[in-house]
Write a structure and sequence with these properties.
With 68 residues, this protein is mainly alpha-helical. It is 43% helix and 0% strand. It has a domain of 40 residues. The radius of gyration is 16 Å and the shape is extended.
Length: 68
Amino acid sequence: MDPKSIDDEYVARAARGVGLGLAPSHVPGVVRYFQMIAGMADSVAGLPLDDTIEPAAIFTPCPAPTQD
């Protein structure tokens, strides 16, 4: 998805589609976040995968970084 195609209306429709009430003041932040995620997805989707690669049986996220 092109991040530029994500706007207030897209976010409002997506929220309605999943039954989520979204405060109007939250929409700009959600738009920015969706645009960021779409950009990341494009980067990942462009990576070539070998047909023999299988997904991990268990996903363990890394811990959030800390500031020391």
